[in-house]
Amino acid sequence: MTTRIDRDVVIIGAGASGLTAATSLRRAGLTVAVLEARDRVGGRLWTEDIEGATLEIGGQWVSPDQHALKETLAELGLETYSRYRAGENVYINDSGVRTRFEGEIFPVAPETQAEIVALIETLDALVAEVDPDRPWAHPRAVELDRISFAGWLATQTEDQEARDNVAMFIAGAMLTKPAHAFSALQALLMAASAGSFSNLVDADFILDERVVGGLQQVPLLLAEQLGDDVHLGQPVRTLRWDDEGVVAVTDGLEVHARRAILALPPTLLSRISFEPALPRRQHQLHQHLSMGLVIKVHAVYETPFWREDGLSGTAFSPYELVHEAYDNTTFGDGRGTLVGFVSDEAADAVFRLPAEERRARILLSLSHYFGDKALSPAVYYESDWGNEEWTRGAYAASFDLGGLARYGADLRTPVGPIHFSCSDLAGKGYQHVDGAIRMGRDTAAAIAAVLEPVATLTSVLD
């Protein structure tokens, strides 16, 4: 027996974007149903208690320029706290030499430092020319989309350490793909979405604050306000559509609506059978998008021992298995937590190892930054979004070479009554919660502008 629901709009995906869209539509007087495949809301936001430690398994940081997210936090009454950053940072070079430092530029040879500064200045100048909502409109978009970011860096300097360090901030820290696997234009979009390349380099900016109780509080509270209109454990198997509306079919529900919002990563759209099929253009562009891969490592210690040594907990090296690490101690917790990241090809390699050997290698890398005490956490946990059935990678989908200039303009274009909304499609705030919220608001506004509320009913189909 299948339950039928009639609504103005059906939203597929209960992440920050889908729930924001649903909330905005309800405020506009429209009725909604949110269908979520998982048994929880939040998508790539997930806070969980692991062995007595509260860990943010997914996204967690709030930047000063993320105004849509900050507005939502204020509306929901959520508080933030600053990331711990007092003390010196650590850098390890390609020879394994560990150096403590302060400031934004790594402690490298003067000539390498000059090259890094020059690359950042060049990138900032290019980023200033890029509209994050329309990067394909840049006069050199096609040219910049045909060369990999690694290839572009090689045209700018012969200094390998300078190239490795600049690449790390886009490849390892953001797109979580090798720098040879995405274009210079895709790198510029990533930087433009944060305001500048300098912002991405500045950990004190891009990783400024966290939310008390975890960032998943945003979708949890939004879903609470939506109440029974959020349906968990309901993966959409089929979406039938025509000019009049849509029918979303799950194993237990059939939602009839005038519009649909697909608020899920574009890489998951193939999990839905569309009747009729989506247009050729959509089929093609989705095949040129793919997720990155990253292991987010949480190591909880009895005390934040690095602080006693005058360290901030911030560490970088494109030559280490863990290419970046931060003090990630939870608000109000007397223990200390380090979070580290293992990306792209390095993640591929360690995922081939048995779990205990992978853990040992990752902790050994952390110990290169923070000493032998890092080898023995009280709690150890790896966030592996690539293994998540309804995500399949992190942090977001990005195009292969040439894909952004070729298909980018169609990413957010509705197909009949079907609209698309998620952080993967955002310009400002791309692949961040801020972008998810912006997309949710914009998509809801576009629908509310053309739909008049109508009466709805719930019934049971035989």
Automatic annotation (TrEMBL):
Ranges of residues in domain Amine oxidase: 17-447
Residue positions binding FAD: S17, E36, A37, V236
Gene3D superfamilies linked to this entry: FAD/NAD(P)-binding domain
Domain of life: Bacteria
Protein name (record): FAD-dependent oxidoreductase
Keywords linked to the UniProt accession: Oxidoreductase
Positions that bind substrate: F341
UniProt-listed InterPro entries: Amino_oxidase (IPR002937), FAD/NAD-bd_sf (IPR036188), Flavin_amine_oxidase (IPR001613), Flavin_MAO (IPR050703)
Family named by the database record: Belongs to the flavin monoamine oxidase family.
GO molecular function: oxidoreductase activity
Co-factor(s): FAD
